[in-house]
Amino acid sequence: MHERACASETRIFKGYCAEMASSAAAAPSDADASRRVLSIQSHVVHGHVGNKSAVFPLQLLGFEVDPICSVQFSNHTGYPTFKGQVLQGHQLSEIVQGLEANELLQGYSHMLTGYIGSVSFLQAVLETVRAVRAASPDMVYFCDPVMGDNGKLYVPEELVQIYREEVLPLASVITPNQFEAEQLTQRKIRSEADAVAACEALHARGPHTVVLTSFEPESLEADGQPGVMMLASHRSSDGALRQWRLRLPQVPQMFTGSGDLVAALLLAWTTTHPGVEGLPIALEKAGASMQAVLARTHRSGRRELCLVQSRADFETPQVVVRAEPLQQ
Fold it and tell me: Known catalytic residue: 260?
């Protein structure tokens, strides 16, 4: 009896699959082709950094996300100890070859890259960008050059030159923090004017959009109002430059994974609000969500970002602070 029931269920299941396959072939896909991301970042078992910080909000905002892990750690490196593996370039290449063999590199609207722990892996990322662009020519490459913060590198020093000389020319959008922008441009950022000049130097290497995700000009300290600045800069094909600043209150806590989160939010909102006119809106919404997450995390007393608890803040960010255009 059990065998006959299983056989019957198998025939029903096969018939259902055949019907679904026929329907799928006849009807257009329900998926939004403009919202499919290949995200290459770190993975931690505990906590929210890298892909653990980026995938959830992207999915909430309607993106299909295919994550690849550049490292796999027990927890992020801010803890007293961590264990795990740093992936090498050939391991990424094998994964990409599998996708390519099944024609799965076609249809990516975006690539997003974050923390990368080895030179060979970064070189393989370059090959991956080219392979995805060959299959999906309109793919937008969001590069978050995760190299360090607060004056300290936490990747091999050789990666800085590879980012500067080889990654930037391929990137559509780049989202460095202050320290990373200084490393890439080889200049200090002490003022808003320095930040503007750094953005222009980064544009000159390739990206049409640059967002400094956090910097603290000396003027903020001078006026006694603790805060952090974001600066969004867009260079159009005719060379015209438009820039906006966003000043946000400072939350008195050190956070890990916030840069990964803001890069993902910027990807999402610049897709929803495309073009140069949409950039300040995307900046405002990303900033609003970030402020909500950081404030909630601080109130909770937790070390890790309160992502799941902030679902509503991702889906419907409450914009309080507006982006201000800079005079050119």
Answer: yes
Domain span at residue 65? 31-325
Tell whether 248 is covered by a domain: yes
Does the residue 89 lie in any domain?
A: yes
pLDDT computed for residue 255 by the predictor: 93
* Total domains in the fold of the chain: 1
Per-residue pLDDT averaged across 41-53, rounded? 96
> Is 13 within a domain?
no
Question: The domain that contains 202 carries what CATH number?
Answer: 3.40.1190.20
Local confidence band at 21 (pLDDT 50, 70, 90 cut-offs) = very low
**Does 2 reside within a domain?**
no
Q: Catalytic one among 30, 32, 138, 260? A: 260
Instruction: Report the 3 state secondary structure along the chain.
Output: CHHHHHHHHHHHHHHHHHHHHHHHHHCCCCCCCCCEEEEEEEEECCCCCCHHHHHHHHHHCCCEEEEEEEEEECCCCCCCCCCEEECCHHHHHHHHHHHHHCCCCCCCCEEEECCCCCHHHHHHHHHHHHHHHHHCCCCEEEECCCCEECCEECCCCHHHHHHHHHHHHHCCEECCCHHHHHHHHCCCCCCHHHHHHHHHHHHHCCCCEEEEEEECCHHHHHCCCCEEEEEEEEECCCCCEEEEEEEEECCCCCCCCHHHHHHHHHHHHHHHCCHHHHHHHHHHHHHHHHHHHHHHHHHHCCCCCCCHHHHHHHHCCCCCCCCEECCC
